[in-house]
């Protein structure tokens, strides 16, 4: 495995896991907010979780952009060395 493959695999793994955690917390937030219980505290907790997941989605998108830029830079910089010149 070369450096380029390692960076791409790491990027895909981290971003994929982050989106799964985002979707899970989004679902939990809406479930808590929509529960037919008379407890306002539970509904407020659900609303807070939803608000936090919106911020998480924003930062996840920003992080994905940074990871994509790093992957691009590595793919441009990591070129095989040319053979030495022969005289």
From TrEMBL:
Keywords: Membrane, Transmembrane, Transmembrane helix. The chain crosses the membrane at residues 12-32, 53-78. This is Uncharacterized protein. It comes from Thermosphaera aggregans (strain DSM 11486 / M11TL).
